[in-house]
Design a protein that fits this description.
- The structure holds two protein chains of two kinds.
- Helices cover 43% and strands 18% of the residues of chain A.
- By secondary structure, chain A is of the alpha/beta class.
- Chain A folds into two domains: 149 residues, 3-Layer(aba) Sandwich (D-Maltodextrin-Binding Protein, domain 2), CATH 3.40.190.150; 115 residues, D-Maltodextrin-Binding Protein, domain 2 (3-Layer(aba) Sandwich).
- In chain A, helix 3 crosses helix 10.
- Chain B has one domain.
- The longest helix of chain B has 34 residues.
- The chains are: A alpha/beta, B mainly alpha.
- Chains A and B meet through helix 3, helix 4, strand 7, helix 8 and helix 9 of A and helix 3, helix 14 and helix 19 of B.
Chain lengths: 319, 494
């Protein structure tokens, strides 16, 4: 047998062995869809669309964002579950997933999915008006303690991320207070500016104009270190309240997606977010960097569920 | 002065003018299609603006927004279905006027009112934004709740002679808003285990059912019964009629500007307040309200267009959205590296001026395109109902599906279609039901919020704010006055 025939045999043999994995090795070979559970124009949607544009450049396949809104994400999740686990349907996800799962309002568990990457994150911050007598987080906690919770505090949503931050502050500070839920972060900012609230717990970028003009002061921010976007704002941790919390946004896929495919997607995301365009996007929207490996993020989300459950039990929402 | 010159150059460049014409045409279309609306239109257009300069993309998006508020009235008049949530009040008089054979008059009223409303809202944005923004900030949970209660009293005047039926329809509407997440606890209620209902009954889907689908059923019945349609007159507005609607346009525009600037209210509330004002203050309408009164079209249409300028006020002065559409606009600004808010006047005054000039040109383009399209749209009315009914049915199903890409929503719309048909047959007015669906969540969540803020004061908090007291007093007067007047007139008749 000539050498070329030997070579041929080897190539054919290898081909047969790898045939089963061919779809993974060539991923993506057709359009990729990112199913987003927020409406077009929402923060999560804009992140998904910006990421889609960058991913398209990385792997050269059309990458589109589809909005399937409703049921706290259940509509999008149910759709993804009905599709094959081949990596062609990616799902947006955020740290709010663990709240929804903890509340038990959706028919899915975190374990039904594999987290890929968290691509950006935003902190929570305790903010007061310019004329407030409160200067530090300690001032706030002391006032709450001495007046048995007389300050009016509120922010976006009930039983969500910002209320959870407030709950942690109450536990560490040893006081209890009411939470006034608003339909949107900017409505809480408006209520703070209009004097209807004494303090608001908000995503700082939702009051960017007021923070820069000094009309709103941040008493504490939930980042690990001082945020590059709000260098004047002291962290909660540096004031002795160990609260490091982020609302992260990222992507996940249905469980059962081949590991090779997941590796390819993760590598593509890593490449996309290191690009100039993505970096500029993060800077424009005051988004913080977060880096979790895929397994770490899945485990973190599962752990978060039990933490959230304890919180929801404490505020009397679940038994 | 230099920046103003740059602004004019931006707007009157070929790409600037093209953007306005394209944005306006697209806006009229998304406004007229039930299910699509200004916020979805703006959101879907954003990716297209990535390659445009920021000032031009802003002009493009805002011309779409403005045109969509007018576009909603086209389907309201022609097929009795509001194209947008803010055009619901236009159906009440616009559709009957069309059925009388005057679609041209109804559409011309709406176009004129929309243009005037847009101009006044825009002028307020340019000249009076800071006092209006200060006033808007005075609205907290207490004031929103009282405003919502005042809004609910409009039911009394909307119901006309059928007060009991009107209250019944409103009660049904309020019950429907109970479905979905509880605003205080954040837990689901009355969703019957269906996660599709978690965020509540989608308002636009309900509108498509109650108006479009119900109308299809009635059309089918009518054509089966062989009823004749009145002859269509292409007649537009006479000079006298134009004079008659002018005060309504002015009142509507002021209401729209202020309500639009209040972040928690918006166009769908402004249109009803404006309608109510016209009904109360017009002593001698050309036709009775509810049967094609021109002012019943002019008031709400000028109001919903004026909310565009109004909603831009908090965006420019506070960096905050005044409406769902401006929330999407803020996203667009940030993508272009601009920070909405007062700093825009400092860092990018050319963009602010381009926005002002572009907005002014948009009204002119809207008026011209609206006139141009009118001849075409009036033809829709002459399509035989046997052809029109299946088209509307198809469009409604697609519209209901397109909001959330859910088949469930088509069934939901169909259910609301049956409900609407039954209510119409039993002569229940639909307007109170719609109003209750708009205001129910606003009153409920703000009532709870106010009580959480009050702590030990309880309900006294509603009497501690002068603005709230004023709104509540107005509510009492607004609710009882029509009843007392009707009672007196009855006595007189005896």
């Amino acid at each position: 047998m000539s050498i070329s025939k030997w070579m041929m045999a080897i190539v054919v043999g290898l081909g047969m062995i790898t045939a089963g994995h061919a779809h993974a090795a060539t991923y993506p070979s057709k359009d990729v869809r990112i199913v987003c559970w927020s409406a077009a124009g929402a923060s999560l949607d804009v992140t998904a669309r910006t990421l889609a544009t960058e991913l398209e450049k990385v792997w050269g396949e059309t990458t589109i964002v589809e909005n399937r809104v409703g049921g706290s994400g259940a509509v999008a999740m149910a759709y993804a579950m009905s599709q094959p686990a081949d990596g062609y349907v990616l799902l947006t996800t955020t740290s709010s997933l663990s709240f929804t799962v903890a509340k038990g309002t959706i028919p899915f568990k975190v374990e039904d999915f594999i987290m890929l990457r968290a691509v950006e994150a935003e902190p929570s911050a305790l903010a007061v008006r310019k004329d407030s007598p409160l200067k530090t987080l300690d001032d706030f906690v002391k006032t709450m303690k001495s007046t048995s919770g007389s300050l009016r505090v509120g922010g976006y949503a009930s039983a969500g991320f910002h209320q959870f931050t407030y709950y942690k502050l109450q536990q560490l500070g040893g006081f209890s207070g009411h939470w006034v839920p608003f339909d949107g972060g900017n409505q809480a900012v408006a209520a703070l500016l209009g004097g209807h609230l004494d303090a608001a717990i908000i995503t700082p970028s939702s009051a960017l104009a007021q923070i820069e003009s000094g009309d709103i002061r941040i008493l504490g921010i939930s980042t690990a270190e001082r945020s590059p976007f709000f260098p004047q704002a002291p962290t909660m941790a540096e004031q002795g309240y160990d609260i490091v919390e982020y609302l992260w946004r990222g992507l996940m896929v249905k469980k059962g997606t081949p590991k090779e495919t997941i590796d390819i997607i993760n590598a593509a995301i890593d490449k996309a977010v290191s690009g100039e365009k993505w970096q500029a996007y993060m800077k424009n929207r005051c988004l913080e960097k977060v880096s979790y490996a895929s397994e770490e993020l899945t485990k973190k989300t599962i752990d978060e569920v039990s933490e959230r459950k304890a919180f929801l039990k404490d505020i009397g929402l679940i038994r | 002065m230099d920046t103003l010159l740059i602004a004019f150059q931006n707007v009157f460049s070929p790409i600037g003018l093209l953007s306005i014409v394209f944005g306006t045409a697209l806006g009229i279309f998304v406004g007229a299609m039930p299910g699509l609306g200004p916020s979805m239109g703006v959101a879907l257009l954003i990716p297209l603006t990535f390659t445009l300069p920021p000032s031009i993309s802003l002009v493009l998006l805002i011309s779409l927004y403005l045109a969509a508020e007018y576009g909603g009235s086209i389907s309201a008049v022609l097929i009795g279905t509001p194209g947008t949530a803010a055009a619901t009040a236009t159906v009440v008089d616009g559709y009957p006027l069309n059925l009388l054979g005057y679609p041209g008059k109804a559409l011309m009223t709406s176009l004129t009112a929309s243009s005037i409303g847009g101009v006044i809202g825009g002028v307020a944005l340019m000249l009076a934004s800071s006092p209006i923004a200060d006033f808007a900030l005075r609205f907290g949970p207490v004031e929103y709740c009282s405003l919502g209660i005042m809004g609910l009293t409009i039911i009394a005047s909307l119901s006309g002679d059928a007060l009991v039926k009107g209250l019944g329809a409103a009660a049904l509407g309020l019950c429907l808003t109970l479905v979905g997440v509880d605003p205080v606890s954040g837990m689901a209620r009355f969703t019957f285990g269906m996660y599709e209902l978690y965020e509540g009954i989608p308002f636009l889907t309900a509108l498509i059912g109650l108006f479009a689908m119900a109308e299809v059923f009635i059309m089918v019945e009518r054509s089966l019964g062989g009823a004749k349609k009145p002859a269509i007159s292409g007649e537009s507005l006479t000079g006298k009629e134009m004079k008659h609607i002018l005060p309504a346009c002015l009142r509507g525009s002021i209401i729209g500007t202020v309500v639009g600037a209040i972040p928690g209210a918006g166009a769908s509330i402004a249109c009803w307040i404006a309608y109510d004002q016209e009904k109360r203050f017009t002593k001698h309408p050309d036709r009775p309200f509810g049967e094609g009164a021109l002012r019943g079209i002019a008031g709400p249409e000028s109001a919903n267009s004026a909310t565009v300028g109004g909603a831009l006020i908090p965006l420019l002065t506070l960096g905050m959205p005044g409406s769902p559409t401006t929330a999407v606009l803020i996203g667009a600004l940030i993508i272009h590296g601009l920070q909405p808010g007062p700093k825009l006047f400092v860092d990018h005054v050319d963009i602010v001026y381009t926005l002002f000039v572009g907005l002014s040109v948009s009204y002119v383009v809207l008026y011209l395109l609206g006139r141009l399209g009118m001849r075409l749209w009036v033809k829709i009315v002459s399509i035989p109902q046997t052809v029109l009914a299946p088209i509307i049915f198809g469009l409604s199903a697609v519209g209901a599906y397109s909001i959330r890409s859910l088949t469930f929503d088509i069934w939901l719309a169909l259910g609301f279609g049956l409900l609407g048909y039954i209510l119409k047959k039993a002569r229940f007015p639909l307007a109170p039901l719609i109003l209750a669906m708009i205001l129910g969540p606003m009153v409920e969540s703000n009532y709870n919020r106010a009580l959480l803020l009050a702590q030990n004061d309880g309900h006294l908090i509603f009497l501690q704010s002068p603005l709230s007291v004023a709104l509540l007093l107005l509510s009492v007067v607004a609710f009882f006055y029509p009843i007392i007047r009707a009672h007196r007139e009855k006595k007189k008749a005896l």
